[in-house]
Amino acid sequence: MWQAGEGRSGWVEEALKSAGLVLARTAKLDGASADRIERLVGSVEHYPAGTFLNGFEGSPKWLLSGWVCEMRILPDARRQIFGFDLPGDMVLPQSRAGQRPCSHVALTRIDCADVERMLRSAGAPEDHELLNRAVAASLAAAQERRYDHIVRLGQYSSSERLVSLLLELRDRLEPLGMVAADSFRLPLTQEQLADTLGLSLIHVHRTLKALRSQGLVEMRLGRVTLLKPAKLDQMAQRGLC
Amino acid sequence: MWQAGEGRSGWVEEALKSAGLVLARTAKLDGASADRIERLVGSVEHYPAGTFLNGFEGSPKWLLSGWVCEMRILPDARRQIFGFDLPGDMVLPQSRAGQRPCSHVALTRIDCADVERMLRSAGAPEDHELLNRAVAASLAAAQERRYDHIVRLGQYSSSERLVSLLLELRDRLEPLGMVAADSFRLPLTQEQLADTLGLSLIHVHRTLKALRSQGLVEMRLGRVTLLKPAKLDQMAQRGLC
DNA sequence: CGCGATTTTGAGCCATGTCAATCGGAGTGG
DNA sequence: CCACTCCGATTGACATGGCTCAAAATCGCG
Lengths: 241, 241
Description:
The structure is a homodimer of 241-residue chains.
Chain A: E1 3-5, H1 10-26, H2 31-40, E2 44-47, E3 61-65, E4 68-73, E5 79-85, E6 90-91, E7 103-106, E8 110-114, H3 115-121, H4 125-155, H5 158-173, E9 183-185, H6 190-197, H7 201-213, E10 217-220, E11 223-226, H8 229-235
Antiparallel strand pairs in A: 1-2, 2-8, 3-6, 3-8, 4-5, 4-7, 9-11, 10-11
Helix pairs in contact in A: 1-2, 5-8, 6-7
The structure holds a DNA duplex (30 and 30 nucleotides).
């Protein structure tokens, strides 16, 4: 089901670095602390796109590269995506006993580190505390985003929904160095966007087309470019309280 | 701004008892543990309907009676209600520094106990642990409900939204002894329901009217009665994952 | 080159939103 | 006790955003 890689090739270093950057930002760690956490990563686990990350019960994974989504499938096959985990985020497959929580699914090939293993290999108690703080901060940030998502679904029009999601993703990918000139890879199909935004596939497409024809965004080959970020910002009603 | 009552009149005992019941259920405490927490309640704070509960920063309140909602107001006056806190729930006014979180507002007159004060007056370390566990469990349950709410807003039709909300509230009020024969007080205006469900006031009214005309619910004078709970259950797609 | 997945288009319908007005009850002041 | 006001519930007419169905075009890949 998965393989653990031992050596650290170039891309692992790369992934670690970007993951450390997010950690530094969300958990408000200084660079040295983030470095210390990076060093705790022992072996890296790899999973193919489509992997269900449940059943891990308990131990969070530190996502080093790739995208994961949280979603729920309804009995009648409707599907709701709650949000996305990006490199540097902690993924907590919280399948709480018998409840109806959400599944975590890898949207791309992913690389991650098991936090429990990192805790075990951590020597100094500061490392433990640092890691725990990082996990807590990452989950708190995800929680915060869930409020935004509720507002998106409850109050925003289709274009506001789409634009605000794109802006959220840009803002999260930026510190990872994965955004160049408001352009970034977006490994999501229009159907997945629809399931995220509570719209039909077809309407997502139409909305996208409208944005494109207004010269606001460009979107092709799994890559988006925000052409008029200021205008988009304003469209998305990014209201502080 | 608020008054602290000292003596425990009958209704305080009443409120304590129902709050203890919720605690026992959500935090999975046995009766004795819930009793111990009840005894920690020192003075009870009272706030009128409409009070904004922010600015309490940090210390949760244990809600003993009344309803509180979490909401966000957008710059253009749109409003989204994230959920409700009922007696027995912990209210955490998490106004995290400058972010755009949510405000907690009392929908009715409320009575609550300050958890920090309870911690201070707690003698035994078990009491501390018990209280912390209760707070964590209550917040976890609220979090769980937020997932449900995202599905409601993203996937459900207007009648599914309305019905699933009513069922959620019934299920939460039931252990408090506040539901008799699927009938309970609902201190919400149609406008507040609309802001919760991401619908317009008028459409909430229409949907309600339809449910009424089908003999599924009755709703007047701030009181709802679910006439055909089984049918409603089925309507609400209460799908386990 | 052919196949499945994804994107794109068009036509038509329905759910939901907007606007405008009325109605009823609760409180308030005279 | 009445007139007034405010708030919430109610109703109707109408507009439209977003959905469904159906089909074609395109892309990615073996």
